[in-house]
Amino acid sequence: MNQLLPLLGIAGALAVGVVSPGPSFVMVARTAVSLSRLEGVAAAFGMGAGGACFALAALAGLQALLLAVPTLFIVLKVAGGLYLAYLGVRIWLGARQPLSMASSQSGESGEAGARRHAGRSFLLGLATQLSNPKTAIVYASVFAAFMPASPSLAFGLGIVAVVFVLETSWYALVALALSAKGPQKTYLRYKAWADRVAGAVIVSLGLRLLASAQRA
Q1: DSSP tag of 147
Q2: What is the pTM of this model?
Q3: According to the model, what pLDDT value does residue 173 have?
C-alpha cells in the first residue's frame, strides 16, 4: 500500500503526457486510417514497447548519464530529429501514390501477409517512439518526483508495466477509432492533402528536435 500511491501518481502524471499530440500520434493515426486496424494496433504495441524501453532506461539512470555527458544527449537528439524528418519526407513524397492495402501489397496470402505487415508497423511504432530521447528525461523526472525512498523491484517492474499499458492502450484506442470505415473513406478521398499535412507535421517535429539539439 505504501508504494501503491506513488505508482498511481506516476500513472496520472504520465497519462497527461501520453495523450499529448506528437509524432507518435500522427504515425499511429496515419497507419490506422491508411492501412488497417491490425497495423494500427501493432504500431500502438510498438509505442508501448518503446515507452517501456525508456522507462527501463530512466530507472537505470539514463537521465544522470545524459546530464553528465551532454554530447551524448545532443547526438541522440540529432539522430531522432533526422529520423523524424526522413519519415516525414517519405510520407510527403508518397502523398500522390495510390494506396495499396496491406493485405495485397506483396501478394502474400491473408494471415501470413497480415502478420508481416503488422510486424513492420510494430517496428515503425517502436522506432518512432525511440526517436525522441527527451521522453526518457520526462520519465526520469516524473519517477524522481513520486518514487518512494526505497523502491522495491516489484515497484520498478510495476512502473514499466504501467508505462507499457498507458502507451499501448491510448494508441490502440486511437487506432481503433481511426480505422473505422468513415475515417478511412475520408482519408482515401483526401489522401494527397492528408499525407502532406502528416508529413509536414512530422518533419517540423524532427526539425524542432534538431533545433533543440543545437541550442543544447
Answers
A1: -
A2: 0.77
A3: 93
